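User: Just a sanity check before I run the rest of the batch. Below are the structure tokens for the first item. I only need the designed sequence back.
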């Protein structure tokens, strides 16, 4: 009887130790879960508690051999270490800010020209702009008319005007819906006098006192206008009408040069009114 009682006592003590061990494990799991919950907020969720918020690269770091996923249980006495956050797969592009840096050679040429401003193209300043901007911008397929246009721009005798209904020639006419009389504006579907391409010509040019008009496409008009804007500004400088300092003048000249380059490449603004 004593032996049987000892066996029962040993078995009871063994069961008690096992139960105490399970209680310790459960207490450790509760402690770990409390840690996870307390460190998770709506603005900064704990990615261990919300695995769906982890990036694919982070979730993949828990994979082990054989393709199985190991569940990092909190059954140990220590809470799990936070997972390393990977960069978001959706990159946010920073807002680009245009910057600029002055070219010393161009600025020196401008300063030299500004001491005695003139429209003489023999100066290094204007010679470069004729070669790099004005010439290419006014170089059209119809070369003879292109030269006449350039001469008229230089002499300030070129006129650009919109096409009026009363001035429509006897060619195919297309009414373009863009806010003219009765909701339409006249546009002549004909060949541009400068490019030779069939376009809707909403403007025409006149060279000096000549009675002839030449219908031009929007792209050709943009190129002519860009060059005219440049000449207008340097004439203002020549006449002493610009009250900015030399550096401000220089950057305005650079902006006008860029307009000529952009127009030459075929970009222009359209009237949405």
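Assistant: Here's the designed sequence for the first item:
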């Amino acid at each position: 009887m004593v032996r049987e009682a000892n066996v029962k006592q040993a078995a009871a003590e063994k069961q008690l130790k096992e139960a105490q061990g399970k209680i310790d494990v459960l207490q450790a799991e509760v402690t770990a879960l409390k840690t996870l919950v307390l460190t998770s907020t709506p603005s900064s969720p704990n990615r261990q508690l919300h695995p769906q918020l982890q990036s694919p690269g982070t979730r993949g770091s828990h994979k082990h051999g054989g393709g199985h996923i190991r569940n990092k249980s909190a059954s140990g006495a220590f809470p799990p270490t936070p997972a390393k956050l990977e960069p978001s797969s959706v990159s946010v592009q920073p807002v680009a800010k245009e910057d600029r840096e002055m070219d010393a050679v161009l600025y020196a040429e401008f300063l030299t020209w500004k001491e005695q401003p003139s429209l003489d193209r023999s100066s290094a300043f204007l010679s470069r702009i004729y070669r790099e901007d004005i010439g290419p911008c006014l170089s059209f397929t119809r070369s003879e008319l292109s030269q006449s246009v350039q001469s008229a721009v230089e002499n300030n005798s070129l006129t650009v005007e919109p096409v009026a209904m009363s001035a429509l020639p006897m060619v195919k006419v297309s009414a373009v819906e863009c806010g003219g009389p009765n909701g339409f504006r006249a546009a002549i579907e004909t060949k541009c006098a400068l490019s030779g391409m069939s376009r809707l010509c909403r403007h025409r040019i006149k060279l000096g006192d000549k009675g002839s008009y030449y219908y031009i496409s929007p792209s050709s008009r943009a190129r002519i206008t860009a060059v005219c804007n440049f000449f207008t500004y340097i004439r203002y400088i020549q006449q002493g009408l610009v009250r900015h300092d030399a550096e401000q003048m220089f950057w305005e000249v650079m902006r006008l040069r860029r307009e000529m380059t952009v127009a030459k490449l075929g970009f222009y603004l359209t009237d949405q009114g």
